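Notebook, bench 3.
Goal today: get a predicted structure for Branched-chain amino acid transport protein AzlD from Treponema porcinum so we can plan the truncation constructs. The sequence was checked against the plasmid map this morning, with no discrepancies at the termini. Length recorded as 109 residues. Pasting the sequence as submitted so the record is complete.
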Amino acid sequence: MTHFQQIVIIAACALATMITRFLPFFIFSEKRPTPRFIMYLGKALPSAVFGMLVVYCLKNVDVFHGMHGLAEFVSIAVTVLLHLWRRQMLLSIAGGTVCYMILVQFVIT
């Protein structure tokens, strides 16, 4: 790949990133109220993304062999308990991830 092609690709990526970042500010100005559908998406999508993350993480768990998904289910329990306790999604996800990594690396082999 030539230097010109590399520069064009980097410029295209930078432009696409800037468009996706700045476009909402042009579409939804402060003068007009935010549409109800966009408000609904702002409330519904975080939970949907979290649900997809759970499904993705559990898709290869085999409950009939090995430790039967023990590390995964203990980590899910830690994630749920942290979320019920503090109601902070970042803390819940990070806590569950750290719990899973500790279980997989040091406890369950």
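DSSP finds four helices and no strands in the chain. Residues 48-107 form one domain.
Flagging this for group meeting.
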